[in-house]
Amino acid sequence: MVLNSVRATSVNDHTCAEQHGAEPAASTSPLRAHDAWTLPIEVLRDALDAEFFEDELFDDIQAVLISCDDLLFLATVPGLPEAERSHLLRFLFSEHISHSWAVVTLDSARTAKVSKTLGATEGPEDAPPDAHLRRVTDARRLYEGSQWAPLHGWRDDDEVITALRALITDSLDGTAEDIPEDVYPLPEGVGAAVTIGYDEQGEPHPLVWVRTDIPSGLRADLWGFCVALSASPDKAGAEPDENGVYYVGMERSPVTGPGLPLLAALTVQRVGRRPGDCDFALLDPVVQDAASQPEAA
Question: 210 to each of 78, 119, 155, 163, 294, how far by Cα in Å?
């Protein structure tokens, strides 16, 4: 098999700076990469009309996804523990969902190689292999009755933002504020700022500020990410600035596995919104005058 337009990445360090376009209309809700890590494997298989099988694969490949015409195959080598096999299948699904790759392979070092096409060349008539993804026009129905269904039904963005702010102020005994207008313009790319204090019992009490001059869907997902950042010990390897402030960027990438971004996506969904991609970048500390830093009201 010849892979065209191949890139290699570590599964653990995999990131994507690709920005998705405008969010779909409210009547549609396509699959997102995070769905591959939350829905049962059997639900993903049936929704995408995929076939699983085990076989000895080529070279050092441990798992492969192949999308061709109306066929979607996922293969793993025999003898894998069930938890490991499930993890590999979920990774293959997440890569296919987020980028419509025709081929995804994983080797024993968990390095992924991907391709848009099956052949050695990619011509203008080659369309992304997303026929399987188009089958799912409303992913919300896949969560009906599950542990990740919304607690109080699907709600609009403003209601979701209110609920997420309440998680910060009520559940975490923190402060949730809009970034004051008098500190604009903000440093390039900054969508939110978070600082976290801890009480004598080690419980977090965050102060969160989110900008308001952005679309409501992006704002809601940023609030969800800030809730996850505040509550989780996982800070994705980021360090705050000298004042203890984490700066959250506005560019988003697909969720590539368990961790902070997945927690953010699930938090947003549980309060009633189908999240977009929730892997927001934690930016390097921003240098700015003390007078321009947001203050809690």
Answer: 48, 46, 20, 14, 10
Q: What distance in Å separates the CA atoms of residue 153 and residue 233, rounded to the nearest whole number? A: 29
Domain map of the chain by residue range?
A: 7-143, 157-292
**In this model, does residue 38 exceed pLDDT 50?**
yes
For 31-43, the DSSP string reads --GGGGGTS-HHH
Q: How far is CA 199 from CA 53, 176, 207, in A?
A: 51, 18, 14
Q: What angle do CA 140, 143, 135 make, to 5 degrees?
A: 55
| Reported pTM | 0.82
- Quote the pLDDT of residue 61: 94
CA distance 141 to 152: 15
CA 35, CA 95: separation in Å to the nearest integer? Answer: 11
Closest CA to 275 of 148, 181, 100: 148
HSE of 34, CA atoms in CB hemisphere, 13 A: 25
Give the pLDDT band of residue 126 (cuts 50, 70, 90): very low
Is residue 253 over pLDDT 70? yes
Beta strands 245-253 and 190-198, pairing class: antiparallel
| Cis before 185 (ω within 30) | yes
CA dihedral 250, 252, 255, 261 (to 10 degrees): 0
Residue 125, amino acid: E
Q: Are strands 175-178 and 204-210 parallel, antiparallel or unpaired?
A: parallel
